[in-house]
UniProtKB/TrEMBL annotation:
The keyword DNA damage does not apply. It is found in: Cell membrane; Membrane. It comes from the Bacteria. PANTHER family: MEMBRANE TRANSPORTER PROTEIN HI_0806-RELATED (PTHR43483:SF3). GO terms for cellular component: plasma membrane. This is Probable membrane transporter protein. Belongs to the 4-toluene sulfonate uptake permease (TSUP) (TC 2.A.102) family. Keywords: Cell membrane, Membrane, Transmembrane, Transmembrane helix.
Amino acid sequence: MLTVLPLYLGLGAVAGVLAGLLGIGGGLVIVPMLVFALAWQGVAPEYLMHLALGTSMATIIFTAVSSALAHHRRGAVRWEVVRGIVPGILAGTLGGTFIAAALSTDFLQIFFAFFLYFVAWQMLSGRKPNPARELPGPAGMLGAGGTIGVFSSLVGIGGGTLSVPFMVWCNIGLHQAIGTSAAIGFPIAVAGTAGYLLNGLRAPALPEYALGFIYLPALVGIVAASVLTAPLGVRLAHSLPVNKLKRIFALLLLAVATRMLFM
């Protein structure tokens, strides 16, 4: 474990800076980094994506708590929205892990790569949804939460890329949508972590120190380093041209997605 911990401390440091600098979800950075690192370690190819997704979900548990508390202190969390959407989030995310467990690494990599293409397009176009309606009723919130949860578990993210546009579309202000999304990230991460842990317990040929589909050295290293470096990214965000950096990062995402398609 000690031999690979420096690798994951380094990955966590990079992920923390990028998350703080660009305001992106940790999973968007962590999942491809984990795929490349685990492949370099010689982990069985059939479980590369499952381990990357499960470990990413576990790291988000820690980052979501601090992020949600920070937004709550600024009054930016709509807790009634959180309460309305969480049942669907829990069911969708947990169910999504069972779907992911039944899928091959090749399919999950292709799915994730196209998700990166979608996020890169969003960054390059700067397109935002036009507010068009109010929040749906209980059934609609259940369906929205379930959809966000399933997709989040399949790509190992806290859901912000999907939940923020949904809330903005429902006439919730952008700052409150971001803050509420941060709070929603915690139940997504808990359900996703539990699902990937359970689904990986009987998987053969997992690497040493794997708990189900959660790779503990990566979890420890990424969490320890990203917590320290995320504030640095926030400080840099106030002194660097973030819009230009987002365009550069979008091009990087396109390159990473293409690389994942041809691994």
